[in-house]
Amino acid sequence: MNTCVRCGAALGVGRFCLNCGHRIGDPAPVEATPVEATPLAPAPEPAAAEPPAAAPAPRDAVPVPVPDSAPEPVALPVQAADPTAVAPATAPLGAPVEPAPVPVPAPPAPRAPVRESTWDPREELLPYEEVDELVDDPVRGRAWIFWVLGAVLLVGLVFVLLDAFAADEDDTPATDPSASASSAPAGGGAEESTQPEAGEDGAEGPTGVGKRVDLARAATVEVPGTAPPTTDFDGNLVAYEAVQMHDGDPRTTWRVEGDATGQVVTFTLAEPAVVDRVGLVNGYAKQVAGVDWYPNNRRILAVTWGFEDGTTVEQTFSEQPTMQLLKVTPVQTSTVTITITSVTPPGSGSLGRDYTAISEVAVTGRRAG
């Protein structure tokens, strides 16, 4: 339903007609329709009589008061949703009413000019390939690993230092006067056993002058015999002369056939000297072509050192191919003798040899004053 059933005006938004105020949805009011008069035959003029009485008003008819003057037009209520007010209806009831003109919206006001932005996304934003390459730093959540590794390395360093200090303490020569045996660490250097020096535990003796040196280097040597030279695996001739006991190379050796127990080797010093240490490498300390000749020859287990004044010192050895030194009471002498008192059996196996060998001899001291 688009028009009012009462006045025919176009309906707007709301529950009442904007033109006549009729409630939308109510039936149209019924109005009395005038009845056309039927022409009758002319009646005879009545005689003068009393004026006829006024016809009674129908029961349904409602007297309509006639105002003295025309009422003021009443403006109809304006719907809240309609921004344009509707003019009050002044036409009589039942007269057709023209629909109100549709309001034409005003043209929009001109907008202010938009200001261009100077922001360039190509300069402000990272390119896609750079964004893809951004990754989280894996070290940030795993820094504790480096602290743990550092602590482990520090603990390892402490253990290494403790072992080094312990080794230094183990290498300190003993001061027991009765100690004459010495043992060399496997694969290591020289080791000393001691006897009291001058001024120690009441012992007296010469001191010598100058710097302590190896007196055996400049000495001459006398030996009870020398084994003949042999040919090594490479076809080279190898000699076993006495001078090879004091050439500073433990891979060369002096050796004699068989068991040399009771035999004497004599060192004559270049000049009188005060001797305070003696020692030797008690076998053939040569390793070549994967062969270790030290266990394949006899090894010396004990000797007696003799000096010019008649004093003697005994020394025993471990079976290690290293220089084993003995600290003795300083004694002035021109000669030093080595009396072999004990040796091992010959080497066993196909490479075993029946020779007694000394690879190197050391006599340390200062020249006499």
From TrEMBL:
Residues of the signal peptide: none
Region (Disordered): 38-70, 97-118, 170-209
Biased composition range(s): Low complexity: 38-63, 174-185
Keyword Methyltransferase attributed: no
Ranges that cross the membrane: 144-167
Domain NAD glycohydrolase translocation F5/8 type C residues, every copy: 237-363
Highest taxon in the source lineage: Bacteria
Keywords per UniProt: Membrane, Transmembrane, Transmembrane helix
Pfam families: NADase_transloc
InterPro entries the record matches: Galactose-bd-like_sf, NADase_transloc
Biased composition, class Pro residues, residue ranges: 98-111
Descriptive protein name: NAD glycohydrolase translocation F5/8 type C domain-containing protein
